[in-house]
């Protein structure tokens, strides 16, 4: 199969080009590792430099392109995604593993994000300020930064790039986009959508390859004025420390997201929040629920209900209709999750799951059954470290104060949820939880496209938010103008 796999090229300076390395790497289907989805360019520093050069040369003209003309291109790219949603969803599921319906939703949502920024950027302006001098007009104007780099992970391989690239382009910047090597095809489709929409050469450049080969080149160049990165805390913090001081960064990183279950909560609903928040996408969402802090008085009932629900979940290839969980995204993920399951068994009570599936239909994929642990102490690895897999850790709490203290006892602060019917707890939780996304009777996962998104503590650099209007703020700089007569 691998010999006949399509070779996908980089997009540099408006041309689909091969890497000067002459090498490619394989994009593998995690549901069936015999299936090579495509070959992608194993780019090297010279390719990265060509992309930076192209983006730099294109900037002057793009910055002067009227915002309505930019919007026409961005909307056309959205049309392309929408009209190809079914085929692209098949491709996304094939390379990443998530159920087909979720892939389709992600593509349509990405188109919506493009349309949102095509409109929002048209009314994104500066401010005017009162001045004592009647002959002086004081105002701010926003302008693009220049060349920006967008680096993204494999778990939402089109919606995360879309929410970074659309505001960057609409604000007048030129872009270098590097997708994850585990799901580069849908990123390629996004670049293709812009190319066929008529984006001028060099305004959006798409480059694939290993972070160890091109990572430094696309982040450390002083020509790159900003980096929007989503991925692991280790990689994000490394990049943040390595770039010139003049480079603006936006780092959306890991999480260890808690769900608090109070004794006044509707327990069936709380189970729903735990299962949807913790196990959809096979637990591979940055905002996925990972720790469940449940009141001792309802712990037994809640846990029994949760285990029953987990038993009923269906696991299988994302292309099979009705599956709740697909495979994990790659071998590293599989090994890491199995390692956490083993440590969970040593450090807490194992209730269900965590086995690799190897029987018929599963033997060539990275399948693991969802796992639930209880009596998880705060010192356990599965309590403290981001697992990024279908593993739920239950810890009991004695009251609200104990719950909030435990919820905040983490280096991360991406998302957090509480299940309660008590307005007092709702209010206190929103006030006291150390997380950038706060959910009350909602899953830790999921965010709307028109509101800011980002984490606190080590889940984000806490510089700029992305999504919504905040996305445009990141990609623009402010000048204060004093105009006299
Ligand atoms: P990763 O950090 O391994 O890789 C993310 C991207 O960064 C990839 O494209 C990778 O090639 C690139 N990269 C890695 N090191 C680099 C370097 N030194 N220079 C330049 N590029 C580099 O993460 P992953 O395994 O793809 O994704 C999983 C992680 O992403 C999890 O930790 C998860 O929590 C996080 N994530 C966070 C959010 C969020 O919004 N906060 C969303 C999704 C995923």
TrEMBL record:
GO molecular function, one term: aldehyde dehydrogenase (NAD+) activity
Organism of this sequence: Paraburkholderia xenovorans (strain LB400)
Catalytic residues of the enzyme: 252
UniProt name for this protein: Aldehyde dehydrogenase
Pfam short name (any one): Aldedh
Domain of life according to the entry: Bacteria
Keywords: Oxidoreductase
Main enzyme class: oxidoreductase
Enzyme nomenclature, EC number: 1.2.1.3
Lineage: Bacteria, Pseudomonadati, Pseudomonadota, Betaproteobacteria, Burkholderiales
InterPro entries: Ald_DH/histidinol_DH, Ald_DH_C, Ald_DH_CS_CYS, Ald_DH_CS_GLU, Ald_DH_N, Aldehyde_DH_dom
Domain Aldehyde dehydrogenase: 16-481
Family under the similarity heading: Belongs to the aldehyde dehydrogenase family.
């Amino acid at each position: 199969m691998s010999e006949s796999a399509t070779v996908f090229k980089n997009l540099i300076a408006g041309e689909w080009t091969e890497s000067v390395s002459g090498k490619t790497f394989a994009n593998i289907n995690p549901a069936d590792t015999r299936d090579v989805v495509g070959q992608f360019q194993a780019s090297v520093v010279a390719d990265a430099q060509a992309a930076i050069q192209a983006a730099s040369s294109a900037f002057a003209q793009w910055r002067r392109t009227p915002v309505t003309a930019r919007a026409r291109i961005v909307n056309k790219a959205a049309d392309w995604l929408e009209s190809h949603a079914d085929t692209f969803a098949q491709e996304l599921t094939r390379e990443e593993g998530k159920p087909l319906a979720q892939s389709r939703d992600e593509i349509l949502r990405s188109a919506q994000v493009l349309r949102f920024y095509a409109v929002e950027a048209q009314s994104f302006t500066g401010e005017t300020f009162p001045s004592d001098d009647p002959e002086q007009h004081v105002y701010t104007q926003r302008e693009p930064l220049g060349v920006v780099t967008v680096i993204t992970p494999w778990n939402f391989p089109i919606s995360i790039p879309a929410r970074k690239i659309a505001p960057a382009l609409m604000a007048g910047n030129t872009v270098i986009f590097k997708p994850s090597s585990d799901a580069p095809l849908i990123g390629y489709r996004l670049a293709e959508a812009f190319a066929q929409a008529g984006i001028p050469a060099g305004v959006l450049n798409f480059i694939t390859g290993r972070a160890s080969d091109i990572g430094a080149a696309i982040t450390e160049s002083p020509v790159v004025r900003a980096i929007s990165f989503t991925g692991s805390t280790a990689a994000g913090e490394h990049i943040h420390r390595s770039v010139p001081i003049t480079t603006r960064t936006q780092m959306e990183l890991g999480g260890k997201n808690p769900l608090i279950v109070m004794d006044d909560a509707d327990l069936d609903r709380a189970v729903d929040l735990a299962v949807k928040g913790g196990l959809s996408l096979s637990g591979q969402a940055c905002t996925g629920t990972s720790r469940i802090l449940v009141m001792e008085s309802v712990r037994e009932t809640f846990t029994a209900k949760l285990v029953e629900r987990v038993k009923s979940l269906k696991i299988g290839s994302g292309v099979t209709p009705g599956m709740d969980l697909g495979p994990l995204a790659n071998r590293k993920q599989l090994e890491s999750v199995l390692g956490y399951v083993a440590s969970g068994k040593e450090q807490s009570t194992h209730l269900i799951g965590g086995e690799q599936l190897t029987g018929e239909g599963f033997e060539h994929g990275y399948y693991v059954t969802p796992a639930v642990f209880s009596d998880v102490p705060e010192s356990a690895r599965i309590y403290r470290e981001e697992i990024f897999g279908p593993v739920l850790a239950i810890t009991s709490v004695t009251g609200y104060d104990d719950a909030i203290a435990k919820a905040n006892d983490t280096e991360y602060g991406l998302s957090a949820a509480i299940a309660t019917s008590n307005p007092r707890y709702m209010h206190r939780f929103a006030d006291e939880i150390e997380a950038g996304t706060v959910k009350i009777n909602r899953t830790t996962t999921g965010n709307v496209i028109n509101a800011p998104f980002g984490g606190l503590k080590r889940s984000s650099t806490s510089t700029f938010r992305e999504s919504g209007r905040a996305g445009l703020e990141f990609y623009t700089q402010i000048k204060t103008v004093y105009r006299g007569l």
